[in-house]
């Protein structure tokens, strides 16, 4: 159990940054769930909106990816 | 469908039995092999699989060194060429299996470009199709055990994303001139809000290549790292390692899905950016 305070901070920071990935999961679930809710009300319109669904998921995911990037930077680049 | 499956079960019951026995033996051999090497806990580091190595000789790695990344990128290019050249060799009215695969991929991406970016984006379809097939095959080849996943490296995906970003930006200015800047001037918003929105739009525009590249690399890399973490569990648990092996099988199925979806998402975002370049007005 050796190591210095800076390394400890690095690991704690990386773990905290990983919380952002969970937040992105909430966002992605929101997009997909709302798509499903809308699709079940009007199934005939659903097929044309799958591209929009994936774009929405990608945008929601992008911010989670920034959190992941911060975690990676803290682990390997600092 | 139901009668079909019962029929095949009746016919090939013995063959199915043999398959189950083989799978069981394979799993036991897999766990036994791990027992020897990885008895000391997580001896394999999950990130080791992304290490770039020289293929020939020793020494430092430069720009023109042939590495495992180069090899697997070349292999995915070869696969794309093989699919398209082999698939379109006959060009028959009733397509063969390879031809229908090639037609399926072509039609899928063409439809996507037309739906998302509009008809006038079709001249840029070859570029988008190339991107899609390269990423798809790089992802799928990375799922072959002991292979190397090129798209898990940000260096690879960043080049792809920067190419898209530069293409789209230059195209926007060539097609619209200074009118391309109206992309950042949201004319549907109240006048007082527009300068603030312009700053936000500008930031989000320049963040595009970052999120575009890291989304692909991050998804692929995280999935492969999870597989290796579970492999480490299987080695550490001994005979109970059968549970992580089942988990690996399930996650592998998920990774096949992710490989296809991430190629799709990369392509469809390229189409969205292209649409912004061709029609910047809000």
Quick gist of this model?
Chain A is mainly alpha-helical and 78 residues long. Chain A has helices at residues 5-41, 43-46, 50-77. Chain A has one domain: F1FO ATP Synthase.
Task: Tell me what you see in this structure.
The complex is a heterodimer of chains A (78) and B (282). Chain A is mainly alpha-helical and 78 residues long. Chain A has one domain: F1FO ATP Synthase. Chain A is 88% helix and 0% strand. Chain A has 3 helices and no strands. Chain A has helices at 5-41, 43-46, 50-77. In chain A, α1 (5-41) runs antiparallel to α3 (50-77). By secondary structure, chain B is mainly α. Helix content of chain B is 70%, strand content 0%. Chain B contains 8 helices and no strands. The longest helix of chain B has 44 residues, at 194-237. Mean pLDDT of chain B is 85; it is low at 1-10 and 38-42. Chains A and B meet through α3 of A and α4, α7 and α8 of B.
**What separation lies between the terminal Cα atoms of chain A?**
20 Å
Number of helical segments of chain B?
8
Helix-strand string of chain B: HHHHHHHH
Rounded mean pLDDT of chain A is: 87
Beta-strand proportion of chain B:
under 5%
| Strand segment count of chain A | 0
Classify the oligomer: heterodimer
| Second rung of CATH, namely the architecture of chain A | Up-down Bundle
Number of domains of chain A: 1
What class, by secondary structure content of chain A?
mainly alpha
Site (Reversibly protonated during proton transport) (chain A): 61
GO molecular function, one term (chain A): proton-transporting ATP synthase activity, rotational mechanism
Membrane topology (chain A): Multi-pass membrane protein
Subcellular location (chain A): Cell inner membrane
């Amino acid at each position: 159990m050796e190591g210095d305070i800076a390394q400890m901070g690095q690991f704690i920071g990386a773990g905290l940054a990983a919380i952002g990935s969970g937040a992105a999961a909430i966002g992605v679930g929101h997009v997909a769930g709302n798509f499903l809710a809308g699709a079940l009300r009007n199934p005939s319109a659903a097929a044309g909106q799958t591209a929009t669904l994936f774009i929405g998921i990608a945008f929601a995911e992008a911010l989670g990816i920034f959190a992941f990037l911060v975690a990676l930077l803290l682990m390997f680049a600092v | 469908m139901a009668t079909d499956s019962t029929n095949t079960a009746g016919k090939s019951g013995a063959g199915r039995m043999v398959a189950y026995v083989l799978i069981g033996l394979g799993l036991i051999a897999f766990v036994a092999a791990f027992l020897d090497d990885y008895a000391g806990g997580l001896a394999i580091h999950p990130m080791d699989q992304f290490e770039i190595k020289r293929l020939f000789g020793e020494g430092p790695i430069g720009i023109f060194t042939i590495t495992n990344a180069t090899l697997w990128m070349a292999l995915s290019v070869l696969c794309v060429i093989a699919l398209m050249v082999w698939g379109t060799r006959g060009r028959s009215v009733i397509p063969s299996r390879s031809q229908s695969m090639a037609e399926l991929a072509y039609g899928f991406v063409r439809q996507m470009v037309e739906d998302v970016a509009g008809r006038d984006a079709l001249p840029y379809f070859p570029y988008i199709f190339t991107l899609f097939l390269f990423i798809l095959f790089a992802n799928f080849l990375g799922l072959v055990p002991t292979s190397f996943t090129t798209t898990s490296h940000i260096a690879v995906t960043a080049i792809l994303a920067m190419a898209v970003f530069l293409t789209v930006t230059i195209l926007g200015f060539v097609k619209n001139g200074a009118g391309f800047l109206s992309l950042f001037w949201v004319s549907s918003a109240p006048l007082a809000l527009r300068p603030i929105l312009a700053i936000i739009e500008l930031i989000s525009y320049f963040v595009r290549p970052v999120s575009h590249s890291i989304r692909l690399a991050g998804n692929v890399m995280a999935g492969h790292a999870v597989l290796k973490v579970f492999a480490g569990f299987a080695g550490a648990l001994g005979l109970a390692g059968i549970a992580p092996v089942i988990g690996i099988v399930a996650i592998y199925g998920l990774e096949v899905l992710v490989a296809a979806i991430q190629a799709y998402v990369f392509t469809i975002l390229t189409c969205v950016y292209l649409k912004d370049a061709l029609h910047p007005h809000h």
